[in-house]
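Troubleshooting log. The previous structure file for this entry was overwritten by mistake, so regenerating from the original sequence record. Sequence copied from the archived sheet and checked twice against the printout by T.R.
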Amino acid sequence: MPSLIFAVTISFSILLAMTTFAFETCEEFVPDSNTSDWYFAKVILGLNEQAKQKAERLKSACKNFDSSNDFSVWLNGLDTWHFRGSLFYLIYAEIPDAFRNLSHTEEEINYANQLTEIKKIPSAVERIKETYSLVIRHQKPYNYKLTPSSNREIIYTPERTLKYGGVCRDFARTLKWSLQQVAKSSSTDRNAETFTPEIQWGHDGKDKGHMWVSVNVPIRNTNGHIQRFAHIDLDSTNYNLSFVPLMPLSKNLSHQQMKQNFKSCQQIISCLEQN
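Regenerated output below.
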């Protein structure tokens, strides 16, 4: 019996090693980029999930490179006058957060407590993922007509957005605020990572008038010194079912670049699906 257990253990170890090797080869399809554009793919590949789950996340992320897919369709028929004017955007996006602490209802207290727990995680990517997942679990559906009044200049606080829903700018502000609460880990781990969330606004192309959150994550060398910053975009309006990190949406890539990126994505996905 001991020899049988030993044989099974050895077989499992070999299988695990083969699986790990197969997974590592999928990273070879990630384009080598000094600008960290493909950090979103590396984040997905680095998640502690099965290859099939990673492939599903990449499929969602890669839709952004598919020229036949246009997320601006959901804007059709809506009054987009409130998106116009860069002055209003700058005032709206950069004003100091005046959000009250989430401590009024049981749901808000629970939300705040979960953020406190997430803050303890040393890994920046894990904190970002857990916070994003928390936000999309609690945010209400997209809702343009929130009040009888047509005035949408009101700035929705997280508690209002989490209770009533909102539009992309409301979701982006809530996501940013939530990420800010966990940007610096409360962990005592000396290697705990930090990050910086920022509001982004689409100026042209299919993202014109749209708002989302960009996260800057410091990449350190073996000595702990920051070498560069990697960037991932998070769009909790269009990607509200699961955590989907994206290549920076404001890159204004050419049609040819989009096609090449989509092709690279498909290669990574095919590799993962074969594991």
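DSSP finds nine helices and three strands in the chain. Archived copy saved in two places this time.
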